[in-house]
Design brief:
The structure is a homodimer of 638-residue chains.
Chain A (H helix, E strand, L loop, with lengths): L14 E2 L5 E2 L4 H23 L22 H18 L3 H17 L8 H6 L8 H4 L1 H19 L3 H16 L16 H12 L2 H13 L6 H8 L31 H18 L2 H17 L31 H17 L3 H15 L17 E2 L14 H10 L2 H4 E3 L3 E4 L5 E7 L2 E9 L6 E8 L6 E8 L7 E5 L2 E3 L5 E2 L2 E8 L4 E6 L3 E6 L9 E6 L2 E6 H4 L6 E3 L5 E6 L6 E12 L8 E3 L3 E11 L11 E2 L2 E3 L1
Parallel strand pairs in A: 5-9, 18-24
Antiparallel strand pairs in A: 1-4, 2-6, 3-23, 4-5, 6-7, 7-8, 8-14, 9-13, 10-11, 10-14, 12-13, 15-16, 16-17, 16-24, 17-22, 17-23, 18-20, 19-20, 20-22
Helix pairs in contact in A: 1-2, 1-15, 2-3, 2-6, 2-15, 6-7, 6-8, 8-9, 8-11, 9-11, 11-12, 11-13, 13-14
């Protein structure tokens, strides 16, 4: 769908499932969560520990010491705590919990009497708090700590970190806002806004929602706060970071924004908060801005993998249709941020326009960020590689590893959402979930081999003595699916007329033991990009279900750009249980440019002709897990 | 040819024709020279004047004044003088000559008593002479002034500037060299080396050759001069400009260099001097280095247009086969520098390996740098454009406009070269030339429609009473030519066995009035790049004779990447006398991706099919002279 429509007064119509209430028994996401738990979380703790991020919380660093605590180290620790919390919610682990408790104690100990909590400004730059909101991430770090505190309280019932953070936020609230003597500031890296919404929902305290709203409302107001604080620092006011305030979406008030600009992660976190607030405070202006921004993103600036932000220069957006493949930045965190934004919009407006994108991100541009063994990470996710791009063990700026970890840990909340008389199945995955539809507890057992197969069986469970309950079961018919079949208790149900906003709405009085079967046809499909995306002209990407595929050198030899797919060549899917942890591959006949052997010359009179070859494509997310080599998503056709 | 072979003791076997002795009566280069004379030279004077470059020579600038004279302003003025000199050599113009004389007077007046001549260091930074050879271009400016002085003396017999420059060089020689108390420095931007060779040849003074040799020999020696002078400036020694000394080819001694690196113009000017010196001093080590560098360039780093240096970051070279089309930097000056290097190498080793590249540069990547009306200039010469790249009237860093002007003015010296018993015809062009073969004066009248037609007639003229003279007439058989026919005085002569190093060697006793006819088949040809050039995979470039072609939007509509050439589609050439000043175009049938109308979506299931269209390609050099729009050299095939 290409254009969003506006609504009247928006509200949060759906709530995502609670992380702790969606269990992945086996299958694709169970595998991801197991690796996340067994490999990634310990590695992240080890890295935070050995790089000094955790010990910095002891506030022992002194001038002249090496390795000064960095302005955003807390955010890495916070995301690890949050990821650990999601894991603990699903899977008890006393030793992990004990580790988190120790870190929470350190955080509590690092908090200053007034509530302030940031190591860098406490020991490295004392007296300089809040002097550079644009660049220095203080509120950003607070935001991640808030998310961690809520998640940890929710998972374990341990409220210590939540108490620390409420005290910190209460202090922050005394400093910022329209009241006299307060700074009219907001953070150069958005994050605290969406975190405050979470905090308000969890604590049911309106004051946190009000602070979130203030930060969002104030953004981009004139006179410009980032200029005011720059002058206060003794600087000459000049165009801001990376040339202008658009880098951090502060170039104009958010309700006037309609073009996705600047740093991609910053943008996604802001838009997520805007969608949250639109629903919470019934703000049609915020939702309208989200519509414009969403349309700009998905119609002009979205990689087929769900990656966003093509440019390394600003870690972010450029112009419409500028989607280079080899130089794509497509930061892992940005795709994760898009998952959050899509999730929040779908709570306000249940519509597959959002959840289709969410699914694309989940199966492609986000999880490409972590190796199959959970030990190495991509910060940058190109769609083509000469063979030199590989996952690394860690990064100086280590935002991505713990971000992918918390997303995987919390992926259960993306599968289901419920309203007062509706149960939405956004994603298909082998799960057992406990959900509340209005006041009714509903257990959903979903059995499927998805994403490798489109057959899904849902068995509903209602508490035994309860009478049948009337609600709408809304099943997403994915945008990639050209043919879907539905059966309820074994009886075929025509979908015609039932599909609205991308969901099949099945209204019924549901009883315990009811079985719903959905069969989503999942053939291999070639995808083309619109002509304005010049990099993809004459090329196709291979898609099957939610998965985007790529060619790797290890399967197809080098010089992948020499491969072309004849327009009519048949492509077939095959599940390979021992390959890459078990994936469907796509195989078929293709051609390779072939001709007289080249000497040393760069150019010659064209003498090459196509030669038949076989190709094998693997899911994009799983690339660079075998022998190093070239990779390519968009393959030449014809 | 892919690999160069080494020789024993090199010498300068050929001398290029003198600029004043090659007249372009009509045709392609006559048109270029007329525009250069009538439009470009006056514009350059106007720009030098209005931007302050000329008045700066009055040394009236004072601290606090606006527009301080820049470190390399003299080089722009010098190249204008040099270009004017070549024009005057062929075409008297008293008012232009008077303008030059005024500027020469200003230059003489700006010279300091000790001979020093650089406005910036005289009025803006007095006392700082020679403190930053790496970055500050003093010797570079001196080099361009030397070239101007030689050219102006040669064209007009007016030796005033030559005197000024000899005095300046004599002063420079007291400062630099291995002697005690001298700086062991050399310039961060090569140029003075090749200029000193010119000066030595023109004045027949060995001391200037010795100084050239010193600068070349010292380059890259350790301890590294650029580090020594940096320390002297009070700086911490760190990797040099743009990360290392390779930026200016000073990372190791020149005889050890075998990989083309760094800033492309700097590289070409250095290699030109190396080739010059190899021949002048019989230095096999220098020639061997030139061979390795040449092979690296032409086998790995040369655009099909003769453009070089793909990266804007360093205005120069990256890695082998990295030849992006849209982001190609391919500075006009760099292609001009390659013409110089090829010319000098061909003087030492007459071989079409050099002159083929020289011709490609001349007809494509150099003259693309100036508009057909001579009034606008490209600094950057991409091989593909979205329609936003256009020639400009001038640049803050204005090296390219006067460089293309002097190259066009002196192009006659590229057409012929002579040795003691040989006359080489490197290029085919409508000319009348007066040449010396050994002691014998030979007049050559060349009649041809080249580059649009491959038929060439050469009529030799010897002084009437002279007896026939034995020498070898060496006619280049261009690398692009698959079939050539030769007739001498109307009689067919078999080429078999006569072609060596890319030249047909016709040994004869030549008499006045002898006529030689060459017929070079010039069909349209598709060219392919080797597979390692991934950007060009599945694409072809169109070539006819020395001309590389491109598609422009004005002829073919937008979205040029949607066009593909079926492998067997016929392409025909047609001369269009009223198009772009008269050019051959290439026309034929092609295909365009076509399908259901797109909505707003970025991607869809592949639904497009090829649709037949007609295309027209025009010579690359002439693009962006009509309606602004897209351009593309490498067209998809298949």
């Amino acid at each position: 769908m290409a254009t969003s429509t506006s609504t009247s007064t928006p509200s949060r119509r759906l709530r995502s499932a609670e992380v702790s209430k969606v269990r992945f028994d086996s299958g694709f996401w169970a595998d991801r969560q197991r690796v996340n738990r067994e490999a990634t979380l310990p590695i992240q703790y080890f890295q935070c520990k050995t790089t000094g991020r955790i010990d910095a919380l002891k506030l022992e660093w002194k001038q002249g010491d090496p390795n000064p605590p960095h302005i955003f180290w807390e955010s890495d620790v916070a995301k690890w705590i949050e990821a650990a919390a999601y894991s603990l919610a699903a899977h008890k682990d006393p030793s992990l919990e004990s580790l988190v408790d120790q870190v929470v104690d350190l955080l509590a100990g690092a908090q200053q009497p007034d509530g302030y909590l940031n190591v860098h400004y406490t020991v490295v730059n004392p007296g300089k708090r809040w002097t550079n909101l644009r660049d220095c991430h203080e509120l950003y770090c607070a935001g991640h700590l808030i998310e961690a505190a809520v998640a940890y309280d929710e998972a374990t019932g341990k409220g210590k970190l939540l108490g620390v953070m409420c005290k910190y936020v209460d202090y922050i609230a005394t400093l910022f806002g329209p009241g006299e003597g307060r700074k009219r500031g907001y953070c150069g890296h958005e994050e605290i806004e969406l975190a405050l919404v979470k905090l308000a929902r969890w604590t049911k305290q309106q004051k946190y929602m009000d602070l979130a709203r203030y930060f969002v409302d104030e953004r981009g107001a004139t006179p410009h706060y980032f200029d005011i604080e720059a002058v206060a620092r003794g600087e000459t006011v000049k165009p801001g970071h990376y040339g202008n305030h658009a880098y951090c979406q502060a170039h104009k008030p958010v309700r006037e924004q309609g073009e996705v600009v600047g740093h991609a992660v910053r943008a996604m976190y802001l838009y997520t908060a805007m969608a949250d607030l639109a629903g919470e405070i019934g703000d049609a202006g915020l939702l309208k801005a989200c519509h414009a921004l969403w349309d700009d993103l998905v119609n002009h600036k979205l990689y087929i993998t769900g990656g966003i932000g093509p440019s390394a220069h600003n870690e972010g957006f450029t112009t419409a249709f500028d989607l280079p493949n080899e130089s794509a930045y497509a930061e892992t965190c940005a795709a994760i941020g898009l998952v959050f934004w899509a999730q929040r919009l779908a709570q306000v407006e249940p519509d597959s326009r959002y959840t289709d994108v969410l699914e694309t991100c989940l199966y492609n541009g986000t999880i490409s960020g972590v190796s199959l063994d959970g030990k190495k990470f991509f910060y940058v996710n190109p769609l083509e590689s000469r063979g030199k791009h590989h996952r690394q063990e860690w990064f100086g700026c280590a935002c991505c590893p713990p971000n992918i970890s918390r997303m995987i840990g919390a992926v259960g909340e993306q599968v289901y959402a419920t309203g007062k008389d509706s149960l939405y199945v956004h994603l298909y995955a082998q799960t057992t979930a406990e959900l509340m539809v209005g006041e009714t507890a509903v257990r959903v057992e979903q059995r499927t081999e998805y994403p490798w197969d489109g057959k899904v069986t849902l068995k509903l469970g209602l508490a035994a003595p309860a009478p049948p309950v009337r609600f709408t079961l809304a099943l997403r018919i994915p945008g990639w699916c050209r043919s879907a079949k539905l059966r309820v208790n074994g009886r075929a149900v025509a979908l015609k007329g039932k599909v609205k906003n991308g969901y099949a709405h099945v209204k019924a009085k549901w009883a315990d033991g009811d079985v719903v079967q959905l069969d989503l046809a999942m053939p291999v499909e070639r995808v083309e990009a619109r002509p304005e995306v010049r990099m993809d002209a004459g090329r196709v990407a291979l898609r099957r279900g939610p998965m985007i595929y790529c060619l790797e050198q290890v399967d197809n030899g080098g010089a992948l750009n020499e491969v072309s797919l004849p327009r009519k060549a048949k492509l077939t899917a095959k599940f390979e249980p021992r390959l890459l942890g078990g994936v469907c591959v796509i195989e078929g006949k293709a051609e390779r440019r072939s001709g007289p052997k080249w000497g040393g010359e760069l150019y010659r009179a064209a003498a090459s002709r196509p030669r038949a070859v076989k190709i094998r494509a693997v899911p994009y997310f799983a690339w660079d897990n075998r022998a190093a080599g070239e990779m390519m998503v968009w393959v030449r056709e014809g």
